[in-house]
Amino acid sequence: MSFLKYIEEAAGFLQQRGFKNPEIGIILGSGLGKILDYMEIEKEVRYNHIPNFPTATVEFHRGKLIYGTLEGKKVVVMQGRFHFYEGYSQLDITFPVRVMKLLGIKHLLVSNAAGAINPNFKKGELMLIDDHINLQGGSPLAFKGVEHLGERFVDMSAPYDRTMNEKLEQIAANKNIKLHKGVYASVVGPQLETRAEYRFLKLIGADAVGMSTVPEVIVANHLDLPVSAISALTDGCDPDNLKPVNIEEILAMAAKAEPNLIRLFRELIKGL
Length: 272
Hints:
Number of domains: 1
CATH architecture: 3-Layer(aba) Sandwich
Number of strands: 9
Largest sheet: 5 strands, mixed, barrel
Order of helices and strands: HEEEEHEEHEHEHEH
């Protein structure tokens, strides 16, 4: 079966189960699931029930596709995403984005938990991603037959939608939410970075670092799908004062940042 057929099979399965004409897709990062509390949920399907879908293996990624209404718009939400460090291919990681586009989404919103490299950024704050550096050593477009799904040589001069980003900045200003803007570096993981690696990332222009988002954003651009992404800054990456990693603290910081992230996404969705 061709890759396109796999996508069509998954989308057809979801349409039969009531995932009808969603306008907006949302990908939730680590510890960022409470937007569902504001959503009128109509349908839920576990990933392992969807034909050809990968299955989430990280314990704090739930692994469900959720459909319903948020701020008057039909949305489809990925509760749990896939990572390169789990052993998935770049095609697996981005498969859901292609399925959501086939279902009908017109905009994609992405969240993630990231480490703050910029010394002016603090734990518990948010960063609007303005640009990224792909350090995952691969591309979700590097496969035979990609030209049947879109332009092979995708322009990435402005990977994050300028209109949506400007709206998010305006909402943040109006709501008195601290929203930094910067460059996100995406690494493989799952180990966190060494002191030397943090110095390198700062040197090449990264303001934050994480292990996700970039593959999905590349594919969104491949599909001409406007995308915006926000990082919840969960840990400080100062190589001169580096503390041992504490996953519980990282999740706690994601929870601290989450209410403002939800406010930004809800207000943006209202105006889309």
